[in-house]
Amino acid sequence: MDDAEGIRDYLAHLLESRGFDVDTAADGRRAQALLESGAAPDVVLLDVLLPGQDGIATLRRMREFDADVPIVMLSVVGTASTIVEAMQAGANDFLNKPFDEDELEAALHSAMRRREQRAKRSARGLAAPEDAQSTIWKSAAMRQIRQVIEQIGDTDVTVLIQGESGTGKEVVARAIHAASTRKARRFVKVNCAALPEDLLESELFGYEAGAFTGAAGRKPGRFELANGGTMFLDEIGEMSPGLQAKLLHVLQERTFSRLGGNQEIEVDVRVVCATHRPLVEMVAERTFREDLYFRLNVVNVEVPPLRERREEVPLLVESFLRRYAAMYDKAQPRPSKRLEAALATYPFPGNVRELENLMKRMIVLETEESILGDLLGGGARRADRASELESLLAEVEQTAGEVPLREVGRRVALQAEREAIGVVLERTQWNRKRAARMLNVSYKTLLQKIRECGLEAEAS
Fold it and tell me: Domains of the chain, with CATH numbers?
């Protein structure tokens, strides 16, 4: 991954000549989109200096999505502070430009070997019966979902999985596949939110040679790869209207055409979709096709947030600590009473994914103090905002008839908006650009809202 085309071509030619299969990307956004859409590289070569989102920021975002993929950083400005920052963000190695070709190859092989060694240790560490994916089924709510999965196991009905981000919707989708008659075939995942429309279309349906600039040869799409198995479309609510129409055609006719081609290709797949967005409201707003919604929503599975499945928290904590202690070759810590109390009351806006990242950080930094601040400080700020909203509602009740209804609505909406923005900002660790995407507003609008709501003081 390098913004200089000459360097990308040189590295691609060099590594291909030494037995690597190489994909290239000009910037972090494009590379991460490919990763989130299902690409599974054995190792990533990432330049520090990239346009827009720099290499360190890209590294952090890639680590959020995939904690294990080896990442080797490249830079012409290899200062000590840059190297330390990269390593803290999760880089496996760091090479200065210009580098020796043999040194580069050795660094890539070394990073891949370390990953294999960690995987072996992790497998030994996870040999105990309670791993995270089995733990998630311990609550009463999740056991009900398991019963539904068992009931539809021998059918091919489409399934729509709904729930907040990080609740475990992909775990449910994989369980549906594992319980089906298609379990011996492929489970193919595509994140519809990770790719722009044109790239998502080519990923789903493939393309013929010459379909667009750079299409040197035929490439099968994900539907072809999933033939006979299960296609998991994550974040289906982000799909554009044009692609919604094409997906509907596949569901109705069980055929599609590659980009640039006119041959109808038959496909036999079970489609499972997931979203954190309210599709019923989107249908009412005409941003999601009603006919597609009914095609997808044959069986609906609602995954409750972690705050409604609190009996899972201690079990998940134990599972994640065991997994990452084995993965990073660290001693497995025992949570203190203070940490247990904080976890018992924390609302987990990021759900299971947030809990996993907290435990990972605790293992890597070898101290629970690294997460207690987030659990206690963030909870206090949320409680403050909640109490502010409750106070406002109490005031409205006391002054009933004295304040115009329009003013009541304006004040309550403003406070609710402030609370929602604050929660998302905390969840993204005050990454305003990411928060803007999650809130579906422009970056400029979010900055204005932060000022209007008086949230700037909480940034520190």
Answer: 5-125 (3.40.50.2300), 156-304 (3.40.50.300), 308-459 (1.10.8.60)
